[in-house]
Write a structure and sequence with these properties.
It is built from seven helices and nine strands. With about 200 residues, the chain is α/β, with parallel strands linked by helices. The strands form two sheets. It has a seven-stranded mixed beta sheet, sandwiched between helices. A two-stranded antiparallel ribbon has the order 2-3. α3 packs antiparallel against α5.
């Protein structure tokens, strides 16, 4: 069931320095990583947007594309850009490097909203800041942090008293993120033949 009061932003503006090439184009099980993010977003809402600095995206993926309002400020800058573009009050933030993320994780974030506080997933490894839910009212606060060059998403979450939604160790595979090219092979081996998406 889609959530009409929300939008979803795929944050894909990183330089992929560790990966060595555009990460979103890397393939896992025959699909580009960005395709997993799009499929996930489409399960959450009809209001999708892509935050990226590659103009090829718009023609290739047929999604509304927005470049960072303030360049070179990392994922927090991408979240700020998304918050300035949405029509809804709430924004789901999706990474481009977690192909096994499931809609249920985001629905659980939605169910745990308290007032207008952000909501973030916590796996057994810690805060998963790119799996989060933000309110449009956070825009000005995030902009101030960026102007002060405080770019850590976890800092923004802490200062805004984010609600943490805990997921047990059984969900760790959903949060496996791909930073290096050999991570794709590792994930193939760990996931085995399980049909996630």
């Amino acid at each position: 069931m889609k959530i009409k009061e929300s939008s979803a932003a795929i944050i894909a503006g990183g330089e992929s320095r560790r990966f060595g090439s555009p990460k979103y184009m890397a393939k896992f099980r025959g699909k580009m990583l960005i395709e997993y993010s799009i499929q996930l977003a489409q399960n959450l809402t009809d209001q999708l947007l892509l935050i990226a600095n590659d103009p090829e995206f718009e023609t290739t993926l047929k999604l509304p594309l927005f470049s960072d309002l303030i360049p070179n400020k990392g994922p927090l800058g991408g979240i700020l850009t998304a918050l300035t573009k949405i029509q809804s009050d709430w924004l789901f933030v999706l990474p481009v490097d977690m192909p096994l993320l499931q809609p249920d994780i985001y629905f659980k974030l939605w169910q745990n909203r308290i007032d207008a506080r952000p909501v973030v997933a916590r796996s057994s490894k810690g805060i998963e800041s790119m799996v989060s839910l933000w309110h449009r009212s956070h825009q000005s606060f995030i902009e101030k942090l960026i102007q002060q060059d405080q770019l850590k998403i976890n800092l923004a979450l802490k200062k805004l008293s984010a609600v943490e939604v805990h997921f047990g160790q059984q969900s760790d595979l959903n949060f496996f993120n791909i930073n290096f090219k050999d991570d794709i092979e590792k994930l193939e081996q760990i996931a085995g033949k399980q049909a996630f998406l």
